[in-house]
Amino acid sequence: MNINVLFTSIGRRVELLNAWKKAYAQLGLSGKIIGTDIDQLAPAAQFVDSFHLVPPTADVDFIPALRKICTEHAVQLVFPLTDTDLPVLSESKTELQTTGATVMVSDTETIAMTGDKWSTYELFSACNLSTPKTWLPQDEPLSEFPLFIKPRYGSAGKHAQKVNDEQELAYCLARTPDPIIQEYIAGPEVTSDVLCDLSGSLLGLVSRERIEVRWGEVAKGKTIFDRNIAAGCEKLVQKLGVVGPITVQCIVSDKIPYFIEINARYGGGAPLGFAAGVNSPAWYLNIAAGQDLNLPPLGSYKTGLYLTRYDTSLFLNENEIESNSI
Questions:
Q1: Are 5 and 291 in contact (CB under 8 A)?
Q2: Residues 123-174: pLDDT tens digits?
Q3: Residue 225: strand, helix, or coil
Q4: Residues 6+ apart with CB under 8 A from 144
Q5: Pick from 297, 306, 308: nearest CA to 223
Q6: Same domain, yes or no: 98 and 205
Q7: Distance CA 68, CA 73 (A)
Q8: Which CATH number belongs to the domain containing residue 279 in this structure?
Q9: How many domains does the structure of the chain reveal?
Q10: What gap in Å lies between CA 140 and CA 183, rounded to an integer?
Q11: Domain that holds residue 154
Q12: Which of 83, 95, 157, 278 could form a disulfide with 273 if both were Cys (CB 3.0 to 4.6 A apart)?
């Protein structure tokens, strides 16, 4: 059976693409991996079967370009790999799915909620999950420092920082777009990859402690299992109605997980979860092929597995760059 999968904004996500290639081989399925990006020098462009340069997500021609690609390549599954693509793909699911593709993105309400850090805080509170106390700029935050400030609609950790006194708080509030203020919680950060099917049912999850982060993405990490984190993720899935993969982030302090953010897409550290046994590429290919799933028990993945990353280089001639599809 031939299953073609499209990933948008592939950027540097080479490991993820290679994990999908491995899943094809494991299942004995054939098909193409298609990638799009706005940058013809995106490293992952060299690791897909067909690369397409597309307009920026906000451009009116973005969705028509994707629709054309889905039609020409008989795409069955579409996965976004950046936060920017989420609202546009969610709003355009019906249009794209007329091509026969299934867009693995949650509905617009879920995308709006997870993209708004204030709404996410309210969601955690409604689910009775521990979460840092949070204020909008017009509210009166705790007078006890340190505090934490971040953009209400930010991603990749940009403009997120600890503030130690009133002077720093005033400085950061003036320079952070749409800021929110949070109680500062010290402790290791844990990201959980949460995988759901098209009906919002939980397929599996894997939690990863972030040891080192570069540019908002994990550079060193290890797999762990925490029953409280897993139970919290299950609550969120039931409340949100998730489609496809999401990541749920928390900070663990005195053995209590404080939930802080949700990203409604594959996380940058997802390959660590694949290696630990949470093989979602194979699961999603199974679903697309109409095959039965043989899911492992929740939490049965390998813990204590470490990830450490390094940089590598690709060297391209001008004609190789120009040959990228447009």
A1: no
A2: 999 999 999 999 998 887 667 899 999 999 988 778 899 999 999 999 999 9
A3: coil
A4: none
A5: 306
A6: yes
A7: 9
A8: 3.30.470.20
A9: 2
A10: 12
A11: 133-183
A12: 278
